[in-house]
Amino acid sequence: MRGFDYVSKRVLFAVLTVFVAITLNFVLFRTLSGDAVSALRCRQCTQAFKEYQRQQLGLDQSKWEQYKLYLQDLAHGDMGKSLRSEQPVTHELWPPIKNTMAMVALGTAFSIVFGILVGVVCAWRRGTWADKGGLWSGLAFYSMPPQWLGLLMVLFVAGWLGLPTAGIKDPTLGILGDASWWDVFVDRMRHMILPALTLGLVLYGEYALVVRSAMLETLGEDYVLTARAKGLSNWRTVRTHGLRNALLPIVTLVALSLGFIIGGSITIEYVFSYPGIGLEVVEAIDQRDYPILQGAFLLLTLSVIGANLLADLLYFKLDPRVSG
Amino acid sequence: MSASIQGGAAAATEGVDVSASRRPRSIRQIALREPTAIAGLAIIAFFVLVALLEPILVTGDPKAKVGPIFEPPSATYPLGLDGGGANMVDLLMAGARVSLLVGFCAALVSAFIGGTVGLLAGFYGGKVDVTLMRMTDYVIVIPDIPLMIVAAALFGRSLTNIIIIIGIIYWTTTARLIRAQVLSVRERVYVKRARALGAGNGRLIFKHILPQVAPLLVANTVLLVAYAIFAETFITFLGLGDPSVISWGRLIENAFNDDAILNDAWWAIIPPGLCVTLVVLGATLFGQSLEDALNPRLRVGHLSVRRFKVRPLRGKLDAE
């Protein structure tokens, strides 16, 4: 039962990590001097209103009670209410999450495709100009702060391509009669391209470098020599014997870079005023809306933990040598 | 192209021989021999020099208004003026000081925590090892940049706080790396002999193990400097930086908030980001070539499982 052991171990680890993340989330936000209510920037709020809010949030009880309450609420999918809009946090966060997921998916897909392509070509043509170009372009993008690359995009690329640089939809769209779904789709894409491209380029740098090194590593293995000795074509050798094996570290890498992808997308969304979870976080920080910040952080952490679990399982599927 | 594939196989076997015969090398040797290490070191040295000379070169307040806002580059102001009418060159030099300070201090905090955890886990093994490494496993999964943003939002906007926040989040890779290294050093004959001669744990750690691990720790710290500078730009860009100091991250933020783009003021946007890119590039090149030369495990796995751990630079550029 090699499979069962491994899977149950990884799942257990993920569940424990979720607990650690939830606890960290609780501790971080409750060790503040003052609490969420007193931190709220709200001039008209009366003392009585604040007391009422505190009672509502359970802030008048002991920390341990609060922790239990927090876990209980989370189990029901309740992450509290936004202090500024009075809406449930889950309700507030859902639309931005959808926007972010679309943007991040597009950017990550771009970076994976180009990263693998350039990485493989570099490793294959090692030492040539193509390799050097790929390597240095990878290094350059890898060293750039994403928000700065975003600004460069707005400054140089947006005007040149005629793409919008802010928001997610054209305010004039649909004013003169209903817009067809195709128009809406095109409009969305036009707004998504620049932020996604920025994210994609930053990640591309990292992926290209890692794919290159993983490929170099596998191309030096004995079985590649065997494959060549068998008379397989170069392309076949690279694809089935090189890339197939080099894919393993790439899977781990993509999952583990999710934390960075999310971090990068926060600043990128801010640059492009793209209404995703990152912009939501920035606004929540600005207005000291801690329930939103807490909810967003928890969701981001959970998604990273989930992605890691997925990568572990995928790894298991891809590499028969892995065992619990 | 057939040559390149065969070349790969040849280089791999050759690599093993070389690493076996040439291994323990000192940092100074590597820094002087590897072209990538020299390039990286030169970049870092340049910026450190600028940061050190800043008090002499910049007379007066760098933030002082010396002309109209977003004045284009001219002979007197080679990089123009920013959105507050201050000289960009002065601002960049002042920024170098703070950014490098944050980078080095946060890296030292990380290296200290990571080094201690790694040393203890590797040296004592058993329950200590399991506990510490389990803890590391949990921390490593928490997305670092969002955590930093949240911590910075909650705990304040002073430079010290930012340094501490970055420092206590980035120690995990160091801990794993050092632990692995200590595990192998611990089993060497000279350590066993020292123990047989009656050396205590403290003496073994500080006298016999730490000196062997130190070069790798230095290499890792150089890499950490790059991540820390990067992280500072994130935190500052979101308005969570120390409002009283100027860093490169702060200059990028200012350019964004002052609408440098609408004014077409590329001179206010490009230079600070370029400085960050160059320093991160320099530290990556230098730190990586040190680590690659010092860490025998990298011969086996060219990839560690963490962002910013891209392995392949050493010797590959000048191969063939």
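qc> Residues 88-124 of chain B form the longest helix (37 residues).
qc> done
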